[in-house]
C-alpha cells in the first residue's frame, strides 16, 4: 500500500478504485460518530476508529465500502475504509462542516459548510473536493433525490431549502419551509421532502410534485434528527432537548406515537429492512435500538462518549 500526501490531504492508495476489500455481509452495518471521544464506532465490532475534533455528521455509501465523517472544528472530512476502519484521508472542506451525504450511486459526497454558506463536492474515487458551490446562509444538511439529479440543502439562515441541479452544479429553486430548517430526508419514491425546523419546532412536509407544503407537524424540543424509513412507512424525528422520538405514519401524515427513548435523542437511522431503528442519546452515551414492528424500545447499546449521528448503508 502506498501513502501519498497531496497538500493537506493524506490518501492511502490501494483501498479504493478497484482494490476495495469485500463489503461485509451483515445486512445492517451501523456507524456512529462519538462527538465527545474524537472517534467513529462501528456498532458491534468492539473497536473505535480515531478521528478528529468535534466529530458531528457521518455517512456511508450504499455498498458499505467507505465512511465519511465531518470534523466541524478542523474543517475537514475524515474518510475510512468501512470493512477495516483504515483511515483513507483527511479532506479539507469549507468552514464549519456539518451534514455529509453520499449519493445513491456511491460516486460522490456533499458536505454542508455552515460557516461560509457553501457545499463541497467530494469525488469518492480520488477523495478530493471537485467543486464548491454557494447555496445560501448557514447550510446545515442535505439529501439527494433518489435519481441523484437534485440535492436539497437546508438553509438555517433564511428558512428555506435550496434545490441544486447536480448536473449543472447550480441552485435552481428555493423551497420555503419552517424557521431555521435543520435536518432533512426524502421519501424513497422522491415525492415528499421532510424538513425538521428548530426555529418553529415543527416538521414541514413538502409534496415535491407541486412544490407545496402539505403538512406541518409540531415537534418536541430541538435540535432534530429526521429519518424516512426505507420502506416509506414512517418518518422518525428526534428532539435532543427532550426524550422522545415522534413517529409519523406516511399513509395519512399523522403522528402515531411519541416514543420515550431517553434524554437527548439526536441522530436516527433505520435498518435497510425497515424493522429496526437506532437513536443516538447524546448525553447518556447510549444508542436506543427500536423495534419498528411494535414501535417500542427493544434494548440499548453503549458505543462510547457523546454518540451524535448514525449512518447505515442503504439509508442515506
Q: Which features characterize this protein?
A:
four-stranded antiparallel β-sheet, disordered N terminus, mainly beta, Thrombin, subunit H, 316 residues
Description:
This protein has a domain at 223-316: Thrombin, subunit H (Beta Barrel), CATH 2.40.10. The protein contains no helices and 30 strands. The chain has strands at 3-6, 9-12, 31-34, 39-42, 49-50, 55-60, 66-71, 76-81, 87-92, 97-102, 108-113, 118-123, 128-134, 139-144, 150-155, 160-165, 170-176, 181-186, 192-197, 202-207, 212-218, 226-228, 234-238, 244-249, 254-260, 265-270, 276-281, 286-291, 296-301, 307-311. Strand 10 (97-102) and strand 11 form a beta hairpin. It is globular and about 45 Å long.
What is the tally of beta strands? Answer: 30
The percent range for strand residues is over 45%
Rg (CA only): 18 Å
- CATH architectural name of the domain at 223-316: Beta Barrel
State the strand order across the main sheet. Answer: 5-4-3-30
| CATH topology category name of the domain at 223-316 | Thrombin, subunit H
Multimeric organization: single chain
Overall geometry comes to globular
CATH secondary-structure class of the domain at 223-316: Mainly Beta
Amino acid at each position: 500500500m502506498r501513502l501519498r500526501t497531496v497538500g493537506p490531504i493524506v490518501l492511502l492508495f490501494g483501498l479504493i478504485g478497484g482494490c476495495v476489500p469485500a463489503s461485509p455481509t451483515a445486512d445492517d452495518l451501523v456507524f456512529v460518530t462519538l462527538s465527545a471521544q474524537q472517534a467513529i464506532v462501528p456498532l458491534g465490532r468492539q473497536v473505535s476508529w480515531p478521528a478528529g475534533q468535534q466529530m458531528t455528521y457521518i455517512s456511508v455509501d450504499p455498498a458499505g465500502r467507505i465512511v465519511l465523517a465531518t470534523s466541524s472544528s478542523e474543517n475537514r472530512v475524515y474518510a475510512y475504509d468501512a470493512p477495516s476502519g483504515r483511515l483513507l484521508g483527511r479532506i479539507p472542506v469549507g468552514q464549519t462542516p456539518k451534514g455529509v451525504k453520499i449519493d445513491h450511486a456511491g460516486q460522490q459526497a456533499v458536505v454542508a459548510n455552515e460557516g461560509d454558506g457553501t457545499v463541497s463536492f467530494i469525488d469518492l474515487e480520488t477523495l478530493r473536493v471537485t467543486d464548491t458551490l454557494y447555496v445560501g446562509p448557514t447550510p446545515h444538511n442535505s439529501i439527494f433525490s433518489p435519481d441523484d439529479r437534485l440535492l436539497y440543502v437546508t438553509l438555517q439562515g433564511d428558512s428555506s431549502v435550496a434545490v441544486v441541479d447536480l448536473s449543472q452544479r447550480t441552485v435552481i429553486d428555493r423551497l420555503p419551509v419552517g424557521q431555521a430548517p435543520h435536518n432533512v430526508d426524502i421519501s424513497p419514491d422522491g415525492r415528499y421532502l421532510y424538513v425538521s425546523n428548530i426555529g418553529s419546532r415543527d416538521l414541514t412536509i413538502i409534496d415535491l410534485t407541486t412544490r407545496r407544503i402539505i403538512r406541518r407537524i409540531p415537534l418536541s424540543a430541538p435540535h432534530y434528527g429526521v429519518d424516512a424509513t426505507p420502506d416509506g412507512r414512517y418518518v422518525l424525528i428526534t428532539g435532543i432537548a427532550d426524550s422522545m422520538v415522534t413517529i409519523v405514519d406516511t399513509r395519512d401524515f399523522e403522528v402515531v406515537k411519541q416514543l420515550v427513548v431517553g434524554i437527548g435523542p439526536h441522530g436516527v437511522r433505520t435498518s435497510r429492512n425497515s424493522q429496526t431503528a437506532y437513536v443516538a442519546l447524546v448525553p447518556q452515551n447510549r444508542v436506543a435500538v427500536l423495534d419498528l414492528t411494535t414501535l417500542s424500545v427493544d434494548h440499548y447499546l453503549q458505543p462510547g462518549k457523546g454518540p451524535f449521528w448514525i449512518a447505515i448503508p442503504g439509508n442515506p
